[in-house]
Write a structure and sequence with these properties.
The protein has one domain (4-244): NAD(P)-binding Rossmann-like Domain (Rossmann fold, 3-Layer(aba) Sandwich). The chain contains nine helices and seven strands; from the N terminus they run E-H-E-H-E-H-E-H-E-H-H-E-H-H-H-E. The protein has helices at residues 13-24, 37-49, 64-77, 102-127, 145-148, 155-175, 194-197, 203-206, 219-230, and strands at residues 4-7, 28-33, 53-58, 81-86, 136-141, 180-187, 241-244. It has a seven-stranded parallel beta sheet, sandwiched between helices.
């Protein structure tokens, strides 16, 4: 029987790359998406074409009821969870702090922080030996922006990822004796379409000269680190925060 993995925000970018790579490594994968069902189904179709096992499940991780429904559907369709990638998140257009709206801040923190923490809660209820689980691995998606601040562009996004760094550190210690490892990956400039949602579609390419390796990373390169942290090869790694930044 395959171990069960849920990847939130897995219809595109890093989430999709992680779902595909994890399936190749033997995971049965729940591909969560918020709106783009066609993109999520394309990921599932590719996994199945490679003889893997996957399902797509719609849920907005900024909503408590939908998060609970998401995890219950994973239970029903794939079985008990042993891996979770806390990937879903949002970015907004580049602005200064003195241009931020209350509504934007609420949305950013509701999805990137509160939703991520509540998803981790649901994962722990299924994985922890305290709750009858057999252990597991959680990987939280942070960002190099958490330590760089993203001034003049996405300070609110950077702050939300700073919260994830702190959450990751505390949660790892909290559940370490309950069979759960908790780690984070901090991508740098990665060539995905998230930059378009921030209003700067060419950001990955224009930032290349500022990266020591002189190129943006790919979603596949980030996925390699995530899947390693999920695996038994990282069995003594918890509380880590792995930068995947090309040296930035």
């Amino acid at each position: 029987m395959k171990p069960v993995l849920l990847v939130t925000g897995a219809s595109r970018g890093i989430g999709a790359a992680t779902a595909l790579l994890a399936a190749r490594h033997g995971w049965a994968v729940a591909v969560n998406y918020s709106q783009n069902s066609a993109a999520a189904e394309a990921v599932v179709k590719q996994i199945k074409a490679e003889s893997g096992q996957a399902v797509s499940i719609q849920a907005d991780v900024g909503d408590e009821a939908q998060i609970k429904h998401l995890f219950s559907q994973v239970d029903a369709q794939l079985g008990r969870l042993t891996g979770f990638v806390n990937n879903a998140g949002v970015l907004d257009v580049a602005v200064r702090v003195d241009e931020l709206s209350w509504e934007r801040l609420q949305r950013m923190m509701r999805i990137n922080v509160i939703g991520a923490m509540f998803c981790a809660r649901e994962a722990i209820l299924r994985m922890s030996t305290k709750h009858g689980g057999k252990g597991g691995s959680i990987v939280n998606l942070s960002s190099v922006a958490a330590r760089m601040g993203a001034p003049g562009q996405y300070v609110d996004y950077a702050a939300s990822k700073g919260a994830i760094d702190t959450f990751n550190a505390g949660l790892a210690k909290e559940v370490a004796a309950e069979g759960i490892r908790v780690n984070a990956v901090r991508p740098g400039i990665i060539d995905t379409d998230i930059h378009a949602s921030g209003g700067i579609p060419d950001r990955a390419k224009t930032m290349a000269p500022m990266i020591p390796m002189l190129r943006p990373g790919s979603a596949d390169e980030v996925a390699q680190s995530i899947v390693w942290l999920l695996s038994d090869a990282a069995s003594y790694v918890t509380g880590a925060n792995l930068d995947v930044t090309g040296g930035r």
